[in-house]
Amino acid sequence: MASLPEPVERLLEAALVGDLTVVNRAGRPITYPLIPLYDGERIFLTSSVLFSRKLEHIKRDGRVALSLTDPIALGGRADRATIQGDARVIEDDPHGGWERLLPIWEKKEPAIVAFLRARVALPLFFERSLIEITPRRAFYWPAGRADEAPVVTELGKEAA
Amino acid sequence: MRSGDRLDVRGGLERLAGHPHQVLTWVGDDGYPVSVAVQATVDAVAGRATFAAPAGLAVATDREVSLTGSHIRPQPGYGYDERRHVTVWGRAAVIGDGQLTLRGLHAWGWDEAEVPFFEYSERSLGQSRRYFDALSAERGTPVKPRLSLGWLALRATRLPFLSATIVPVLIGIAIAATHGSFDPLAAVLTVIGAALVQLGLNVANDVFDAQLGADDANVTPTQFSGGSRVIQYGLLSLRQMATLAAVFYLAAAAIGVVLLAIRGSETLLVIGVLGFVVSLGYTAPPLKLVYRGLGEIAVAIGFGPLMLLGAYVVQTRGVLSWEPVVASIPVALLVALILYVNEIPDIRGDARAGKRTLPVRFSRVTVVRGYDIAVALAYAAIVVGVGAGVLPLPALAVLLTIPLARDVHAGLMPNYDNPYGLMAVMGRNIKVHAYAGLLLLAAYAAVLIAGAVAPSLNLFLG
Predict the structure, then answer these.
(1) CB spacing of B35 vs A69 below 8 angstroms
(2) Residue A31 scores a pLDDT above 60
(3) Residue A136: which domain range?
């Protein structure tokens, strides 16, 4: 599988929040702000069971997009990107399976480890499923301006 | 309409206008969503948003598209706050000059300034249940949320609230000791038995509140109010909690029988039976005392005179005196005030479930005045008790907690409608009871010490 363009990878690493869009049964796009976690190949997001409607949509249609557009959430960066990809839900162990992503999550939200230690206070928030996105196409706006056509990178459909 | 739910289109557009940019999204012909940041001009009254067509991308005009605004404020080393997002869906149309307009059809959003995250989570419990039900059906075996046994036990039994029992029981034992009666084995059994009664009460309270709908109706529970939530969260079933309550009550009854056998008296039997009735009848039908506005009185009696006198008569083998009765008055009032204040954040849910607690029945002014009167009476009982020579002089140290009680008073009105703002106030109120009780206990420790080292020293007036 081809890699994401380097500036898009940097955006993913910087992004405190991205907008995940899934497609509902009616074909309507539904957008959720989530913390994107990137391991150098795939993009991961986690969803509490409390807000798991998005998982139902993904299980039915795995075609999703993740947009990184907010300069505040991007640490002041002005460039923007949207990554289309195929998502799958990993829910073998909602209680602890997602914790393998803690090291990456902690880099973006250091307090998450302390929050997790106090999971008794909000137990269902820490029952989480993973969303794994395999990128298929990336749109990149170097200056973040929509009046300039994006740089489009096709990443292929082959299995990773 | 509050956020965290569907919004009317105008409201959604108004919120969208507050974001410096919006994310335009549509589903492309290949089925993948496409998102691009735009800067829309919003006319909420007209129900539309206008923006420049993004270069190099063909926005779908034959299906619904969306505009999303989202905001966070990064907090270094913490994460973020000020979370809010809003999405407005509608049809996009070309209006010339490279401009597109979206006419809003529906909207949805959440703003944690309006619906705090904890309330938003509680409002989402139904989705959590649907998730686990679906996963269970998929796997053919029950899948449930989990907590480690220790945390689950702590949460299900509300163990930290045991101070409400420990304080009066120790005071009763201490007073008996100053009267020359002390049996260490009976004292230990009394503490354990009384604690088991309270644990039974805590768990039974959750069982009946779940059955009667009060906990389900409450979307603003806090660490001090709204029950343990283990049933609502699916951590334990109603049946498991009912069994746990029965185990606690049976264990308490067993200890009660042992105490009757080794230190028994008719007085202890009466107190024990009354305690059981008050404890179970607090939430359980047919009494449902807390649903009838009698919860505070039940708690005052149960965790005041019954606990304190019960512990006292175990030691004295049924001999009563005025001193433990008087000492139990401030303890009773202050423990009732814990419940009273903790009921304030539950007002909306309790009212919906027909749980007519005092804060549900009365106006906020009356409720705060009620707090002031009750807390003043608690301190007055100490002063009068000492003045009458019934309570020892060091008991006046309880008055040191007055500033804390004043803080509680000051925090009630400003946070009356803010359950999460009330948490600090509830915490302080619990401290008023605990510290006052410990200071009263310390007063009796002083009497005991004085009796041992300086028998001629009289720590009582008169």
Answers:
(1) yes
(2) yes
(3) 6-146
